[in-house]
């Protein structure tokens, strides 16, 4: 029996953030949360809110933070049958604070939490799947999580699914740029779609210059590079064309999770057979709307809102839309 169209694997965490800007994490101050989070989790929730069947492979603790996550995904229609509840370990947590210059500071508890205990992907999960999405944050977290991602890529490829990869790179966690590229190599070799920022494209390839880095990715076998340019939108590279798609002006409340929502919009657009310019518009709309609510997943757009902002005709009324 066919499963979900879109699969992702990785960390399921809650995020707890400072109420005030410019409040470092090394001193007492007020927090707000928990908010459901984790790059693959945000991606899954956004794709489900766009009306597609999505399954998430991950793990949470048998605690209230785990309950917070599972209840959110149940409400939005994400399939969590492949999420393990780990006894004896707490659900993963990220603490975050924002600064006036736009930067952020995080303290992560992922690899040493239930989030780090990813269940081994099984062949049945990928029956009928069209996409597997991998995040660099998951590759950064632990060796066990990397191996689970590598295995997922193998099974997805065998099932005929495409693989998308958001580098979301953290070289400081991986022992430098060379180690980072080695860790990403197995996923990159299988990826049809890569969704980097300008800095990530250069880090991933070791090639200076944005266009040269993106061309290097294409030369290596990637079919589409969707370069994220923040408020300026995105630039889409293929072997035959380069398309710049402008962003949308919104009032930014919380930028965390915008890139993951962009990823989901892009994968959904490709799944629906939109042309690349339309795919970019949908992805930009999801990324922009993601920033308008506090909490990394709270701005994940409903289908009506994202399609309206993107200026697209919604021709998928037969889909499950929430």
Descriptive report:
The protein has 322 residues and is α/β, with parallel strands linked by helices. It has one domain: UDP-N-acetylmuramoyl-L-alanine:D-glutamate ligase, CATH 3.40.1190.20. It contains eleven helices and 14 strands. The strands form two sheets. Strands 1, 4, 5, 6, 9, 10, 11, 12, 13 and 14 form a ten-stranded mixed sheet that branches. Strands 3-2-7-8 form a four-stranded mixed sheet. α1 (39-49) packs across α9, α4 (143-158) runs parallel beside α6 and α9 packs antiparallel against α10. The model is unreliable at 317-322 (pLDDT under 50).
Q: What's the CATH class, please? A: Alpha Beta
Major β-sheet annotation: 10 strands, mixed
Principal-axis shape equals globular
**Approximately how much helix is present in the residues?**
25-40%
Name the CATH superfamily assignment: Ribokinase
Provide the descriptors you would attach to this structure in a database record:
alpha/beta, 322 residues, UDP-N-acetylmuramoyl-L-alanine:D-glutamate ligase, 10-stranded mixed sheet, 11 helices
């Amino acid at each position: 029996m066919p499963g979900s169209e879109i699969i992702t694997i990785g960390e399921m965490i809650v995020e707890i953030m400072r109420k005030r800007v410019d409040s470092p994490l090394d001193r007492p101050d007020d927090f707000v949360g928990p908010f459901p989070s984790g790059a693959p989790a945000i991606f899954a929730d956004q794709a489900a809110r766009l009306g597609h069947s999505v399954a998430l492979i991950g793990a949470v603790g048998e605690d209230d933070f785990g309950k917070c996550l599972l209840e959110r995904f149940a409400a939005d229609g994400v399939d969590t049958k492949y999420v393990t509840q780990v006894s004896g370990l707490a659900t993963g947590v990220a603490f975050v604070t924002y600064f006036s210059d736009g930067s952020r500071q995080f303290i992560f508890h992922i690899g040493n939490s239930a989030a780090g205990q990813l269940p081994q992907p099984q062949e049945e999960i990928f029956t009928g799947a069209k996409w597997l999405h991998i995040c660099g944050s998951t590759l950064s977290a632990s060796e066990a999580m990397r191996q689970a991602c590598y295995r997922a890529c193998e099974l997805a490829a065998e099932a005929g699914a495409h693989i998308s990869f958001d580098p979301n790179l953290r070289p400081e966690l991986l022992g430098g740029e060379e180690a980072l590229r080695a860790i990403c190599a197995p996923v990159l070799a299988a990826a049809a779609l890569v969704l980097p920022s300008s800095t990530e494209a250069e880090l991933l390839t070791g090639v200076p210059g944005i266009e040269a880095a993106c061309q290097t990715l294409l030369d290596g076998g990637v079919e589409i590079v969707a370069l994220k340019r923040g408020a300026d939108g995105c630039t889409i590279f293929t072997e035959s064309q380069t398309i710049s798609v402008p962003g949308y002006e919104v009032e930014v409340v919380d930028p965390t999770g915008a890139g993951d929502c962009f990823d989901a919009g892009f994968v959904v657009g490709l799944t629906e057979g939109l042309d690349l310019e339309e795919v970019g518009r949908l992805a930009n709309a999801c990324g922009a709307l993601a920033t308008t609510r506090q909490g990394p997943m709270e701005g994940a757009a409903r289908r009506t809102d994202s399609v309206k902002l993107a200026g697209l005709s919604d021709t998928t009324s037969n889909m499950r839309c929430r």
